[in-house]
Structure to design on (478 residues):
């Protein structure tokens, strides 16, 4: 029998590595198991997020955005440059450097906090044992008083579009294109599809997004979704709603996609096809038969509000449990679980988890949408404000978008905040903090905001809840 630990965490993604570091900070003897191996054959931490997800996609989103700014918008503000050229190889090199810095940072944090890194595939074999099979196939069993499963998720594959090397790919492959495809198809108009479609559209691809649902971004407030769809269409993204893919065929290094829509059978040909139809929990093979941890029919692990499974001292967090598949949600669950194991009282506010789509402009939201409130029979009042009336947004040459606040009609408590704008992912933190502290719309309306700042749009939206916005004509008089 190998070493005994207070805590063993399976998975070193945003949930797992944070849980391991927090547990170690609490004085617990902690190990973290990771099976991810990079192209050089070295075990790396960070999971999907740092290696093939959040971080690399944001690197390409930022570089492609800068390219479009230089190509299309510098002249508008008086900056004259020769026509810029996109160096895809250099962009990928930058993306990889960002990955390496982040991954290396986690390894350094493990060392600094005394977390033991176990390389290989982890499997829970009992409520106190984890079997780790290294890259050579050798298995070692470790014991622990507590086990945290943070195995993450993987892209969903669909039968009509079987993956074909470098032609039909998931989001992972879409981050590795070495040249801009002339015709790019994207299946799925969700967060990942819109972000990756935006990257390659900015760099010159003709992008068509095929979405099976009839509505665009149904999880987003309808007013924000409508504005976002309009802005993305203006940028040249061809988003086809109600388009259900039924098959595909690779012909002469091209992909022929068949789909049905309101007009019947359709067909389109692409040079590359990205399949972005969601992710599924990576739990197969992580829990041995007989351990007793309950899973649902989709492979998600059943947990309570504090991420306890039905087996004592076994916890699960992140993408392999209920709730949104978001890195920051996984991280906060990791902190909560580590604190609970250490004997502290801890909980997480699942009503105040922000979501962001890093298109340009960005889309961000927290809490209820107006349609959510209506479905629950909650009477609300709302306030909206356009960034076209915000001085800093105009000075930034980024007047697109709007901010919207949803408040309880009776108590004035903020139930949701929704933004489409430049840097919406940063601005949304105001809504998260407000909801965390149970703030009212009046609280934000009475707050002094810096001028000029794009945050003033949040202030004006809060004022608009009672019809008191200063910088636009008010519909309501109080």
């Amino acid at each position: 029998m190998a070493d005994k630990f207070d805590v063993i965490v399976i998975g070193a993604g945003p949930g797992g590595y944070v849980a391991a570091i927090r547990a170690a900070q609490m004085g617990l003897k902690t190990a973290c198991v990771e099976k991810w191996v990079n192209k050089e054959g070295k075990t790396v931490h960070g999971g999907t997020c740092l290696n093939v997800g959040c971080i690399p996609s944001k690197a390409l989103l930022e570089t492609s955005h800068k390219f479009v700014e230089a190509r299309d918008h510098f002249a508008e503000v008086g900056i004259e440059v020769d026509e810029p050229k996109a160096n895809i190889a250099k962009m990928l090199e930058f993306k990889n450097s960002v990955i390496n810095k982040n991954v290396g940072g986690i390894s350094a944090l493990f060392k600094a906090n005394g977390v033991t890194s176990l390389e290989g595939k982890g499997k829970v074999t009992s409520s106190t044992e984890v079997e780790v099979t290294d890259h050579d196939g050798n298995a070692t069993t470790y014991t622990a008083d507590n086990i945290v499963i943070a195995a993450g998720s993987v892209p969903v594959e669909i039968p009509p579009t079987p993956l074909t090397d470098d032609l039909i790919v998931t989001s992972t492959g879409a981050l590795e294109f070495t040249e801009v495809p002339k015709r790019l198809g994207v299946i799925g108009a969700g967060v990942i599809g819109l972000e990756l479609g935006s990257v390659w559209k900015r760099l010159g691809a003709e992008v068509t997004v095929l979405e099976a649902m009839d509505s665009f971004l149904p999880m987003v407030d309808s007013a924000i979704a409508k504005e976002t769809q309009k802005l993305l269409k203006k940028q040249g993204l061809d988003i086809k709603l109600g388009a259900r893919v039924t098959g595909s065929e690779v012909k002469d290094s091209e992909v022929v996609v068949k789909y049905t829509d309101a007009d019947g059978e359709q067909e389109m040909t692409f040079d590359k096809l990205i399949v972005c139809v969601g992710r599924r929990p990576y739990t197969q093979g992580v829990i041995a038969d007989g351990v007793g941890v309950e899973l649902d029919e989709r492979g998600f692990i059943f947990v309570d509000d504090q991420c306890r499974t039905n087996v004592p001292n076994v916890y699960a967090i992140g993408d392999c449990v209920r709730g949104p598949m978001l890195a920051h949600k996984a991280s906060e669950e990791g902190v909560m679980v580590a604190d609970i194991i250490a004997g502290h009282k801890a909980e997480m506010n699942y009503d105040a988890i922000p979501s962001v789509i890093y298109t340009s402009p960005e889309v961000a939201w927290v809490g209820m949408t107006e349609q959510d409130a209506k479905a629950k029979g909650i009477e609300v009042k709302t306030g909206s404000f356009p960034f076209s009336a915000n001085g800093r947004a105009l000075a930034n040459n980024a007047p697109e978008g709007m901010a919207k606040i949803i408040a309880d009609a009776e108590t004035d408590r903020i139930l949701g905040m929704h933004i489409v704008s430049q840097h919406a992912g940063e601005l949304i933190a105001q809504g998260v903090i407000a909801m965390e502290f149970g703030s009212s719309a009046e609280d934000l309306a009475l707050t002094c905001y810096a001028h000029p700042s794009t945050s003033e749009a949040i202030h004006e939206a809060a004022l608009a809840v009672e019809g008191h916005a200063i910088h636009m004509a008010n519909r309501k008089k109080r």
Remarks:
- The CA atoms of residues 467 and 478 lie 7 Å apart.
- The first strand starts at residue 4 and ends at 10.
